[in-house]
Amino acid sequence: MQKVLHLDPAKCTGCLSCEMACSYENYGVFATSRSRIKVFDFHHTGRKVPYTCTQCDEAWCLHACPVEAITVDKVTGAKVVSEATCVGCKVCTIACPFGTINYVAETGKVQKCDLCGGQPACAEACPTGAITYIDANWTGLARMQQWADKLGNQSAPAAA
């Protein structure tokens, strides 16, 4: 069963627990600047939105890498950057249409979400359930339930 990160912006409070957990998991420090997930703060609306690599099936980043530093993890399906192979050319950052691959000046390499080997620290740290790790086949379940509720998916009144 393939699993994916499911991000629900309506539940995000902007606490940055996900960013802190990610940086600690990957670098052993609590530094939001080192996180592979970001929480965007839309000041004009007051909304907070968590955002990270969506692990595209097509994976333009993987196909664009001239040294094949991005590979598919056979267990999680995550597109993973090999820091040892990466030459820091940044072609993958240009190829990603979502801007979720970041160049790290200190290392001269790129970083992106690798799903923490199947136990994403961001999802485990999120106190509101805005980030969950779910079966890929059910990413639209909450929307389907909302739509069903709008159409009358209510309990039938008891017969008299």
Automatic annotation (TrEMBL):
Parts forming coiled coils: none
Residue span(s) of domain 4Fe-4S ferredoxin-type: 3-32, 44-75, 77-106, 111-136
Entry-linked InterPro entries: 4Fe4S_Fe-S-bd, 4Fe4S_Fe_S_CS, RnfB_subfamily
Keyword Coiled coil among UniProt keywords: no
UniProt KW keywords: 4Fe-4S, Electron transport, Iron, Iron-sulfur, Metal-binding, Transport
Matching Pfam families: Fer4_11, Fer4_4
One Gene Ontology molecular-function label: metal ion binding
PANTHER family in UniProt: DIMETHYLSULFOXIDE REDUCTASE CHAIN B (PTHR42859:SF10), OXIDOREDUCTASE (PTHR42859)
UniProt-recorded name of the protein: Putative ferredoxin-like protein YdhY
Species assigned in the record: Tepidimonas sediminis
Lineage summary: Bacteria, Pseudomonadati, Pseudomonadota, Betaproteobacteria, Burkholderiales
Protein encoded by which gene: ydhY
